[in-house]
Structures are given as structure tokens and as C-alpha cells.
Amino acid sequence: MREPIISFKDYTYHYRSQAEPTIHNINLEIHKGERIIIVGPSGCGKSTLAHCLNGLNPFSYPGESTGSLTICGIEAAKSSIFELSQCVGTVLQDTDGQFIGMTVLEDIAFSMENSCVPQEEMIRRTRQEAGRVSLMEKLDAAPHELSGGQKQRVSMAGVMINRVPVLLFDEPLANLDPAAGRDAIELIGHLQKDDEKTVVIIEHRLEDAMHMGADRIILMENGRIISDSSPEELFLSDKLKKAGIREPLYLTALKYAGVALSRDMHVEHMQTLRLDEPHKEKVRKWFAERTHKEPAKERPEVLRAQKIHFGYLPGKENLTDISFSIREGEMVSIVGKNGAGKSTMAKLLCGFEKPDQGTLYYRGKDMSGDTIKERASHIGYVMQNPNQMISKPMIFEEVALSLVMQKLPEEEIRQRVYETLKICGLYEFRNWPVNALSYGQKKRVTIASILVVSPQILILDEPTAGQDFRHYTEIMEFLRELNEKGITVLMITHDMHLMLEYTSRSLVFADGRKIADTTPEALFSDPQLLERASLKETSLVEIAEACGLAPESYIRAFIEYDREVRA
Amino acid sequence: MSASLSYIKKDSPIHRLSGSTKFIFFLIWSIAAMTTYDTRVLVTMFVLGVVFFVSSGLKWKDIRFAFLFMMWLIIINLIALFAFAPEQGVEIYGTRHEIVHLFWRYSVLWEELFYLFNFMMKYLAVIPVALLFILATNPSEFAASLSRIGVSYRVGYSVAIALRYIPDIQRDFHDISQAQQARGIDLSRKDKFTDRLKNSAAILFPLVLSSLQRIEVISNAMELRGFGKNKKRTWIVERPFRRADFAAILVAVIMLAVSIGFMVHNGGRYFNPFV
């Protein structure tokens, strides 16, 4: 038996600022060259575990540990963040924040600079490493000239340049669009193979992370490891479902069809999955029994964009000839690559920017004369990061802010705030400080603070970014309830599950143009369109094709059924 | 948007100088301009400054906003000088040539005009060199050259990293203020001053919170990649100190010597054409 490169023995970690230990009695061995995925719901301790590996615990976030943790033969507790960084290279989640240098060249060289490597050697090694992650052309680029995926490749090059044996990725997919995420995972897979690196990925998008393949999946819950097994074994069990982790969609699809999963089906990967004729027959039978809902009847139009052109700087258009129409009570996703013009479109709708040409209509009325404030009474805008919106320490004050600004009488303010808090399920927290809330609850507060002026349309920027399955469901179900109360919801998103499960229509943007306006099912059945929208295919399509069913109708049937089951 | 002043990458003799050369040049040049009121020296410095600027390949549009803004400040300064001491020129040059009397104690005097002109020239002698320092110096390379002349690399790096994140924080500010405007928080001039102050808190609070978050990520990322491990560090963008650097500093020193030389020759800081 080889010596493990990482070994936790009965390891417990207790942050100084917490009353209870965050991870308990961890026993885990990781060997050289292994690919490990660590999954678990938010707050399960997976990030704490990662911080113990790279030394942020206890050297940046102080705390006490018991038991032992050895990494590359070093006793972690007696080591330092610097010594551990020679063994474990960490790529963080925030692609922007961890970009330290002014340019790609400087960022990749950063750790060598700190190790006093001579200049010529740094330049040589940096160029070599940039070549491995295909960034040679971009060496002089500043961070804002790069896409999210490129920034992440810079970070990867920046840690690999140290020739570390272990690469640790903390939610590498959270800030990337699906296509960039797929490419990132593929790149990680290649790099791992070339150098026999040990790769540890913390990620709750399990199906996407599995694209690389994994030797083991570690499932955590409440600070403990509840499963440590091969992917196949885990997928055959019901542990994922119990822990509230989304299992790969192709497995859910087979389970819905009543297919009993077994070892000889090789369930660990869509590519390895073996479907025999009886299995396919079951899927077809399930599909035949599904009845399609009638499409809802046409409601009046609330929002229309007509031939919109816009550019931040003269001479360069960020949006070209955009037209679309939104009907009352719709839930629509706006999708496309970063920089495709989605957020710019939202800013135009809210009146933050004015179109150079074209007109926006709200219920048939031209909005161009309305101020930002006037538009806000019809169209509410919720930013991605709740911390960028919350400007009052107390929940009540935060939600009341818009009404206070309108100088309404105190009694009316209180009444409307309470009403809104009740709708948002925050009424019992009304006198709490915002700080005491979880991320998902803060998100609700920001939505409440917009809803309080009773807008007819809500625009949300990435409402579920970085959320685990439970919080995702919580936020989205809440939005759907609002939608059922008649509020029209537009969402800018990269989340394919969100598009499929919650929206009836997708506006697809690419390079400042609207390239499609279609149902999510149709979008996901069109590989070319997917590629242009920087999305990736879903395994449901492969199941449908394997069973000889039309992907579009199969996806629709699956989503409708899934909704009923989960409700 | 040419309102923000930051490094513009170009290849020119000026850009090829090391960052500390440009910094030292700027310091000596400023001292030379501060010491003297001699028109001949100041005009020479201004002309040289413009020549340096042109040879850097930077464009007028890169500095238009900043330059006009500074000119505006200088003009206000000149008006204030005239308002508070309209006969300052007479005191300095010892003669009084009136062009036209305005009102009360204010007259347009040749001496006062000449004094104010010299005052303006002191600024103009420095502005091109200052702008060059800001626009033609790569912040990381500057940090590197600072550490070579003995400044701790932590200090140098904190300057560089601040510059790296300024665009991000500007964008945060922009996004936050738009979202808050939509909630009825108005920062336009319509509101009372106290209201505006209160309203700007509604933007600063989230800005500070999100910036603190950002700082946590940055400092973790830096530590994880070994920042602060050693007493020293190397820099990939470091430039060697070459002959051109010595030559540039020599030019600045000569200018300072000329400025002092003229002062000795004149028997004071002022060049007096009136006697």
C-alpha cells in the first residue's frame, strides 16, 4: 500500500469564533494521483476541510484542532501556510478576487516572485505554464480583458507553476458559464493525467464535476463524512438524495421511469452507462404515459423592446437590434456568455442607461421619458450579490428604505413592510439585524426590499449563483410563488437547471445580439445554439436519443414530472 | 472615459525608464520648479516637459480631462491670489506700472500680471512630468524599483495592488449607486445637502461591505501563493537600471542646478525685468 499524500486521523476542527467544532472526527486518506470530489450541502464543513488542507485554517482563521492531519509528510498543525502551499496549490472560487497581478504574466509569476526566483527563469517558466493552459496570446492582458474561464486558467497556471503535487479547487464551477465550466473540468482532467497530480475538487454541481471522472466521492453532512466511496457505489445508493444533493439528471430520469439501477449498468458516467432494451422500453413506456399540459393562454404584453441599439462608448455597440416582448405572468430566462449583453439589457430596462436607438414599452407605453425612480415602481432589479444591495443594518429598515425615501406616513410604511415580509417568509425576523441571516435569507431581504414598492416585473441577476440544491430550490420556489401571484419574472442566468425547471422561455444573447427566443427544451435540443449561448448539453438529451425519443418533448415531460414529484 | 488616470502601456524611451527613475526625476523636477520664480527657467522646464510628453507617445486625449481640471484649479488659485493681494507684484518687483484701474483697491498691473504668470508657470513646469509619471509607469514595475532603492516590498506592493483593484471598486460603486437610485435614493443636486450626505451612506455601506469581502479573498489568495514568505522577493517586470536612467536623473539634477544657479545670479527667487 502506498503512503497517503493526505491523511486525516480522527481530525476535528473548532474555529475560535464558533461555539461548536465545524468538522468532527474526520478520517480520510488521499493517495498520490487520485481524483477526489467532495460534495455536501452548504454549511456541511467541506470548505473548512479545504481550508485545513491549504493552511488557511488555522493560520488565517484561527481555531483548535484535535487528531492529526499530515500533508506530504508534514504535520499540518506545526507547519505554516507557506510550507503547505508548496504541497497543496489552491484555486479559489472567486475568479476576479484571486487575480492579483496587473497582467496575466505577473499573476502566473506571483508565487515565484515570492520565492525569489530569478527573473529569466520566471519568464521562461511563466511562458511554459501559460502555454499549457493556452494563454500565450494573453500574457499582457489585464484581468478585465479576460473571460471568467480564462481568469480561472490563469489561477490554475499560477498554482501549478510551483510544481505542487496536490491541486485543490474550491467550487471551480460556481462563477463560470456551463460551457466554460465544462472546459475547465476537462482541462483539470488533462493536467491531472499529464503530471499524475492529486486533484481535490469541492463542488456541489456533481454531474458537471464528474465530467472529469473521479476515483472517489466524499459526501459530507453536518461536519462529518457520511460516505466515502467510488462514484458508482454512491450513485447506486440513496445517500445523495438524503443529503439534499442533486444527483446526475440521467439517473433521476431512469429512476422516474422505474429502471432499477444496478452495478452492471456502469452508472458513474453518462458515457459509460449501459442501457439494455428492457431499460429503454421502460423509459419509452414512462414517456408514453405522460400527458402534456396545455400551454397557458396568451396574456397581455407587459414589456416590449423594439429595435434597441446601445453602446457604452461611441463607435462600439454592446447591443444591436434587440427586439422582444414579455407577457404578463411569464418567467423568462436571459442566457448567454459573459459580455453577451444580458446585464446591459437589464440596465436599459431599469433605465440605468438610455438606448441610443429604439424604444422600450411598458404595457404599451413608451418609457423613454420615465426616470429611474419612476421605472422602479414597475420594474424591480435585484443584484446578484445581496451584500451590494443591503445598506441598512436592520431588516425592517432595509425593506422600508424605498418607502421612507418616498416620505410615506409611518403607519403605511409599517403596514406595507410587514405585508411584504410575510410574503417573503421573513416576518418573524422583522426586528433582526441583517447580519444574522444566511446568504439565502439575505437574498430574500433584497427581493423584499424591491417588492415593497409592488413592481409588476422583477429582474434578477443570477438569483441562484453559488447556492446548493436546497437553497436553490428554496429561492426558486419562492420566486415561483411570486410569479403565481402575477409578478412577471426575468432572470439573467447561467444555471441550466434553473432555465429548464423554472422558465418557460429563454432569450439567448450572443455578441450583443438576440440569437434566439425559444423554449428551454428546444434550446437544449439544439447543439449549435447551445454552443453559441455558451451552455452545454444535458444528459437528458442523451437518454432521449438512446431510447429513440424526441429530446424536446422528453425534456418537457421530465421537467413537468420532476416538478410534481418535488412539490 | 479618460477621467481616470492610470498606466497606459506603450513602448517609448520614457516607458523604458525604470519606475524609480521617473519618480526621482519627478521629485527633483518639482523641487527645481518650487524653488524658482524665474520665468526663463520655468518656461524652459515647461517646454522640456512638453517635449518629454510628446516623445512618450501619449496622446492629448489621454490627459485632456485631467489637464483641463488642473487648469481650472490653477485659474481659481490665481483669482484668489489676485483677490487677496492685488499688489503682491509691486512688493516683489519694486515698481508699479498700472494698465487700468478697476475699482476700490484693484488695478491691473504689469507687475501683478507677471507675478501671476510666473506662478502659473510653476505648475505648468511640473504638470507634464507628473502626468508622465502617472501614465507611463507600470505600477508593478514601480513597486519593484521602489524595493530596489530600499523601500519595503510590502509597501510597494500595497500601492500596486490598490491600483489593480481600483477599476473593480469603481465598477462596484457604479452598480451599487444605480441599484440604489432605483430604490429612490437620489444623489442629484435636487436634494438638500444633509439628505445627500445621508443618501451617500446608503451607497457607501454596501460598498465598504463588498470591498471588505474582496480584501479577504485577495489576502487569502496572496498568502496561499506565498506572499510575505521571505524578506525579499523578485519581480517579473523589473527593469534593470541602465545608462538612460542615469542620463534622465542627470537631466533633472542639471535643471535643479540651473534653477539654483539663476537664483544666485538674480540674488533672489525672482527674475525682475522691470528695473
Query: Rg of chain B to the nearest angstrom?
Result: 24 Å
Decide which structural class fits the backbone of chain B: mainly alpha
In what range is the share of β-strand residues of chain B?
under 5%
What is the average of the pLDDT values of chain B?
A: 88
Q: Determine the number of helices of chain B (DSSP H or I, runs of at least 4 residues).
A: 10
Encode the helix/strand succession of chain B as letters: HHHHHEEHHHHH
Which properties best describe this structure?
A: 567 residues; alpha/beta; globular; B: 275 residues; mainly alpha; 2 domains; 2 strands; 69% helix
Could you explain the architecture of this structure?
- The complex is a heterodimer of chains A (567) and B (275).
- With 567 residues, chain A is of the alpha/beta class.
- Helix content of chain A is 39%, strand content 21%.
- In chain A, the strands form four sheets. In chain A, strands 6-7-8-3-9-10 form a six-stranded mixed beta sheet, sandwiched between helices. Chain A has a six-stranded mixed beta sheet with strand order 16-17-18-13-19-20, sandwiched between helices.
- In chain A, a hairpin with a 2-residue loop joins β19 (505-510) and β20.
- In chain A, α6 packs parallel to α7.
- Chain A is globular.
- By secondary structure, chain B is mainly α.
- Chain B has two domains: 1-137 and 239-275, no CATH class; 139-236, no CATH class.
- Helices cover 69% and strands 4% of the residues of chain B.
- Chain B has ten helices and two strands.
- Chain B has helices at residues 13-16, 19-35, 39-55, 60-84, 88-93, 110-135, 139-148, 153-182, 193-224, 243-266, and strands at 98-103, 106-109.
- A two-stranded antiparallel sheet of chain B has the order 1-2.
- In chain B, a hairpin with a 2-residue loop joins β1 (98-103) and β2.
- In chain B, α2 packs antiparallel against α6, α2 (19-35) runs parallel beside α10 and α3 (39-55) packs parallel to α6.
- The longest helix of chain B has 32 residues, at 193-224.
- Chain B is flat and about 70 Å long.
- The termini of chain B are far apart.
- At the A-B interface, α3, α4, α5, α14 and α15 of A face α8 and α9 of B.
